[in-house]
Design a protein that fits this description.
The protein is α/β, with parallel strands linked by helices and about 500 residues long. It has 3 domains: about 130 residues, Fumarate Reductase Iron-sulfur Protein, Chain B, domain 2 (Orthogonal Bundle), CATH 1.10.1060; about 170 residues, FAD/NAD(P)-binding domain; about 160 residues, 3-Layer(bba) Sandwich (FAD/NAD(P)-binding domain), CATH 3.50.50. The chain contains 20 helices and 16 strands. The strands form 4 sheets. It has a 5-stranded parallel β-sheet, with helices on both faces. A 5-stranded parallel β-sheet has the order 6-14-7-8-9. Strands 10, 11, 12 and 13 form a 4-stranded antiparallel β-sheet that branches. β11 and β12 form a beta hairpin. α6 crosses α9, α10 runs parallel beside α19 and α15 runs parallel beside α16. The longest helix has 19 residues.
Length: about 500
């Protein structure tokens, strides 16, 4: 075992893997922005960890990864052990290593963050799992005993995949249904390839199928198959339905040609870029109402400052837009998106307009968008939640020219008719109501129906969906295995 060099961080600065050259990115290259660490680099960066007695990084992580422990294993070259340890808390570590906003989570809480630069936790996590998979490592299920129980999972996004992973580890058979042609949900269709190479998702599918998970894709509940059929044929059903309802903001002119919701824009481009559909079929719900324009040479304005907005502006750059502007109604310090993503967008040529609130989308001919009318804002006093709301500044209106306007105000869940018919209730904001009143965690008002991820908490991070899918699996196991055998230790700790 290697001897810990406690003060290695003094001599070893924080380093990220090499970036794809800027010229390639702005010329339309969709490969992942960050390369991969070599073994020496990964060990060197892992060695910067102070191994805090009560690690802030672990506490800040939604799945509470054993971060100092697997960093130490990397430093010692014990990659397969590190991969196994990663999977103890996180069913999708290679995804989270790529798409988590580490600057807001584990790395933001790192003791070294302020003065020396945080340990590059996300890049090391990516290195661990990619390397282990390349060496043939797969989860060890040799001690799993089949229970004869079978659970259906609706939705192959991060919540559904995490739930499936944990259930099969407990000896419960799992069949995953999804209306789309590939697994991953918005990881596959919504997150651009420059953040998450889709081959990574394909590998995870192969891993899950090797664990015994069965996928039935292109199957839409309520259309091809009834929920009643699943409730009859399975011991429980997990709902990982996501959040797809578009928040439009009610702007005058939002129905003009050239005005696009963020999600179908990202989905269609993702399908074209990956070659899964050269024509980029629209996402369900917009098939008959939306077509994607060519962005080459166009002036693009994106409204919204979250991670989805950053995905949109950086995609527009790669699609050849003449200019890309992001408008956000608060200042940069209060942007909800990852600071690292904002920096990457700015590096790629995106212009930011902070303290700008859109009022309407203008048109020169009454048919197509020609600009966005905005008003400057200042931040008012904090509200009850400590959030400072933007206040318009009188007489500060202006128009930003635009050929294409992409609205990225967020998305919210919606209860489908086939689920409402089962008496499952939602909150006023559309989120499914789970737990409480003697119910298990993540259990809906229907005994056999459980839910987690964006359909429960609203549009959020991949890692929070993973956490909820994982923890919902523990509740499902408690119900279906009651009186059968003890709950597996891995699920009890969830």
């Amino acid at each position: 075992m290697s001897k810990k060099q406690v003060f290695q961080f003094l001599d070893a600065p924080r380093e990220m893997p090499r970036k794809l050259p800027l010229a390639l990115r702005t010329a339309g290259d969709w490969n992942e922005l960050y390369g991969a660490f070599a073994q020496t680099e990964a060990a060197h960066q892992s060695g910067r960890c102070l191994d805090c007695g009560n690690p802030y990084c672990e506490a800040k992580c939604p799945v509470h990864n054993y971060i100092p422990n697997w960093l130490q294993l990397v430093q010692e070259g014990r990659i397969l052990e590190a991969a196994a340890l990663c999977h103890e808390t996180n069913p999708l570590p290679e995804m989270c290593g790529r798409v988590c906003p580490q600057d807001r989570l584990c790395e933001g809480a790192c003791t070294l963050n302020d003065d020396f630069g945080a340990v590059t936790i996300g890049a090391v996590e990516k290195y661990i799992v990619d390397t282990a998979f390349a060496q043939g490592w797969r989860p060890d299920l040799s001690k799993v005993v089949a229970t004869g129980k079978h659970v259906a999972v609706i939705g192959a996004g991060p919540a559904g995949l995490a739930c499936a992973d944990r259930l099969v580890r407990s000896g419960i058979a799992v069949t995953v249904f999804d209306r789309y042609e590939q697994i991953g949900g918005l990881m596959q269709f919504g997150i651009p390839s420059f953040k998450l190479d889709k081959a990574v998702i394909a590998t995870r599918r192969e891993v899950l199928e090797g664990m015994g998970v069965v996928f039935k894709l292109g199957v839409e509940i309520g259309r091809h198959l009834t929920l009643e059929h699943l409730l009859t044929g399975y011991d429980a059903v997990f709902l990982g339905l996501g959040a797809y309802r578009y928040t439009d903001g009610g702007l005058p002119g939002q129905d003009l040609a050239g005005v696009l919701p963020a999600l179908p824009f990202l989905v269609q481009n993702g399908r074209i870029v990956t070659g899964s559909d050269p024509h980029g079929r629209p996402i369900a719900g917009w098939e008959d109402t939306l077509s994607m324009p060519d962005l080459a040479g166009k002036r693009v304005v994106v409204l919204g400052g979250g991670d989805t907005g950053m995905d949109c502006v950086r995609s527009a750059i790669r699609l050849g837009a003449a200019s890309v502007t992001c408008a956000y109604r608060r200042d940069e310090a209060n942007m909800p998106g990852s600071a690292r993503e904002v920096a990457n967008a700015r590096e790629e040529g995106v212009q930011f307009l902070f303290n700008r609130q859109p009022l309407a989308i203008d048109s020169n001919d009454g048919k197509a968008a020609s600009g966005v009318r905005m008003v400057e804002t200042r931040l008012g006093a904090p509200d009850a939640n400590g959030r400072r709301n933007p206040e318009p500044i009188a007489g500060s209106e202006s128009v930003v020219a635009a050929d294409i306007v992409i609205i990225a105000f967020g998305f919210s869940p919606k209860v489908p008719d086939w689920l409402a018919a089962q008496g499952v209730q939602a909150q006023p904001n559309g989120r499914l109501a789970v737990g409480g009143n003697g119910r298990l965690a993540y259990q809906t008002g229907h005994d056999k129906l459980f839910a987690g991820g964006d359909c429960v908490r609203g549009a959020d991070l991949v890692v929070t969906a993973v956490q909820e899918g994982r923890d919902a699996a523990a509740s499902i196991a408690r119900m279906v295995l009651r009186g059968v055998r003890a709950i597996p230790a891995a699920l009890e700790s969830a």
